[in-house]
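Structure Section — protein described below
Tokens — whole-number codes for backbone shape
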Amino acid sequence: MNGQNRDDLKPGMKVAVILKKDQRSGVQTEGIVKDLLTKSKFHPHGIKVRLEDGQVGRVAEILE
């Protein structure tokens, strides 16, 4: 599942995100969602989240 719909995401889920610094290379970072930062229901590049370790990125894939 991709991370474009806010309703698909909940805190505590394991996701793969693309951090701002990795947008050109597309390198994904795995982590657990702490906060949902995008307010809109849908975002074409992925919903922006904060991971439990403090990193912020857009969800590329929902792993669990």
User: Anything to note?
Assistant: The radius of gyration is 10 Å.
